[in-house]
Design a protein that fits this description.
By secondary structure, the chain is α+β, with helices and mostly antiparallel strands. The protein has three domains: 2-34 and 46-185, no CATH class; 197-268 and 450-491, no CATH class; 271-420, no CATH class. The protein is 28% helix and 27% strand. It has helices at 2-17, 42-48, 53-67, 71-82, 115-127, 172-179, 191-197, 214-221, 257-268, 295-303, 306-314, 321-327, 364-368, 483-491; strands at residues 34-40, 95-100, 105-111, 135-137, 140-145, 148-152, 156-162, 203-208, 233-242, 245-254, 270-271, 287-294, 328-336, 346-351, 374-378, 383-388, 401-408, 411-415, 444-449, 459-464, 470-475. It has a 21-stranded antiparallel beta sheet that branches. Helix 1 runs antiparallel to helix 3, helix 3 packs antiparallel against helix 4 (71-82) and helix 10 runs antiparallel to helix 12. The longest helix is centred in the N-terminal third of the chain and has 16 residues, at 2-17. It is elongated and about 80 Å long.
């Protein structure tokens, strides 16, 4: 195990010294069936992390400590420290990460600057029993390190790992084919690659729904048109590390007509947030999310899916689902006051009437047949308490469960802690937070408060101004130092 840790440390050390240019032919080795591709600007990351010469030397010392008394290996480390190009990998170029469709395998792609130097490096690893012997095949050289196949040519190096089944050696022919790809072949010849190259960010990623393993596809697409093409449902994501915050943007890239039609219908069923529940919760609330919905339109949209429509009609629970959905109109929110200490939550929703509560009375005969295993109790006007001896009978986990729900002040509530119902903040509310003023007018807004976790982590927000694009910010307490450098300091690297 110690020997594999050596390889990991070597990889980390290389990352710290890397930099980024682009435009080399090595990108031709990206697979054409990649469902996810990420490009990483390692030089920028190193600079923003504040990894100066002294810190790099510290990494080297740690690496040498792992190597122990192996002098040849320590000499190799010194050699790479003095001149990173001695590794044989062009550390001045982008590093690419990819995952093939249905998560069959994952890989890393880098440009080769010196083929013989890579051979020397891997031979040294082989002598330490970190990898197998080097073999020649199909114009490239390959070996296996743990469950990873490493193959390289004069131009590119790929390291691939099976994610689903099989062994690393089974990927040999795939790696050889990637290394032989020419202009017009592979992911680099697609418009998606061009979109990535035109995007700004320390990390740029493009992924499609083809990433999902087959066993997850059926439940996700059940009832959706068979014409849906998962490969045409994509998203482009960029991540940048700035002073005091990390900023991510997720932009949908959808060319599938079925999915576009579905998204347009979903947009019509939602509106902009009014900010009704910002004053309901304390400013130190752990997790908070909100959106504005038209429950009636949501119900109609769900019924367009044959599977969902059948579920509503054949449900063993005698509830008037149409009445429940039609009553909801306006802001809907869910909050977890302190997720680190408890699982307590409470949900609120604006409702236009309370008549739908009568449908829960129809549950009482069914509950009475449970022999006390399930209870539904009236807790005053428009208020109920639901209890189950074992939530497993409802497919909601094991153990006892208690829920309180009802309507109060024209707001529907659902919670697992009745003390949260109607509770008001004693001091500052969410409206008083740094982000509180940016909630109203958004299609979605969520926030996580890290204050209780560690001193400088601040908070994270996720918002959608139009119901399509998503903007995420992780804001630190220290606004002057790059967020990446702060994270490095926090983890004690």
């Amino acid at each position: 195990m110690r020997r594999y840790n050596v390889a990991i440390w070597v990889g980390i050390f290389m990352l710290l010294l890397a930099s980024c240019t682009d435009g080399s032919k090595y990108v031709l080795a990206l697979p054409d069936d990649a469902a996810l591709v990420a490009s990483v600007n390692l030089k920028t990351l190193s600079q923003k992390a504040g990894l100066n010469d002294e810190k790099e030397k510290s990494v080297a010392r740690k690496l040498k400590a792992v190597l122990g008394s192996d002098l040849s290996s320590q000499e190799l480390v010194d050699k790479i420290i003095q001149n990173p190009s001695e590794s044989g990998i062009a550390l001045e170029d982008n590093i690419y990460f990819f995952v093939r469709k249905q998560a069959a395998s994952a890989g890393v792609l880098a440009r080769v600057s010196n083929r013989s130097a890579i051979a020397d490096l891997l031979e040294a690893f082989h002598e330490q029993q970190l990898c197998g012997a080097l073999r020649e095949s199909g114009g490239c050289t390959w070996t296996v390190m743990g469950n990873t196949l490493i193959a390289y040519s004069d131009i590119a190096l790929v390291a691939m790992t099976p994610l689903r089944q099989g062994e690393a050696k089974d990927l040999q022919y795939q790696a050889e084919r990637l290394l032989r790809q020419k202009e017009g072949e592979g992911f680099a010849s697609t418009p998606d690659y061009q979109k990535m190259m035109e995007s700004r960010g320390d990390i740029v990623t493009l992924a499609s729904l083809e990433l999902l393993p087959s066993e997850y596809v059926t439940p996700l697409t059940m009832g959706v048109s068979a014409e849906l093409k998962l490969k045409d449902v994509k998203a482009l994501a960029t991540l940048s590390f700035e002073n005091g915050k990390a900023v991510a943007d997720i932009i949908p890239v959808i060319t599938d007509g079925v999915m576009n039609d579905l998204l347009e219908k979903q947009l019509k069923a939602c509106s902009v947030l009014k900010g009704h529940y910002l004053d309901t919760f304390s400013s130190n609330t752990g997790v908070w999310m909100a959106m504005n919905v038209d429950g009636g339109q949501i119900f109609s949209l769900l019924n367009e899916n044959p599977t969902m429509r059948r579920q509503f009609k054949t449900s063993m629970i005698p509830l008037d689902f149409a009445a429940i959905f039609n009553a909801v109109e306006g802001d809907v929110t869910i909050a977890f006051p302190n997720p680190l200490r408890s699982r307590d939550f409470i949900m609120y929703a604006d409702v236009v009437n309370r008549d739908f509560l009568q449908t829960f009375e129809a549950l009482k005969p069914l509950v009475a047949m449970s022999g006390g295993q399930v209870k539904l109790l009236n807790k005053g006007q428009d208020a109920y308490e639901f209890r189950a001896v074992d939530a497993a009978m409802l497919n909601l986990g094991k153990g006892p469960m208690a829920l309180w729900f009802g309507v109060k002040d024209n707001r529907f509530y659902l919670t697992n802690n009745d003390q949260l119902v109607g509770k008001k903040p004693l001091g500052w509310s969410l409206r008083d937070t740094e982000w509180g003023g940016g909630v109203t007018g958004k299609r979605f807004f969520g926030a996580v408060n890290f204050a209780g976790m560690t001193g400088g982590l601040g908070y994270l927000t996720a918002e959608s101004p139009d119901g399509k694009n998503i903007h995420i910010e992780w804001v630190m307490k220290d606004k002057q130092v790059n967020v990446l450098q702060q994270l490095v300091q926090i983890v004690g690297f």
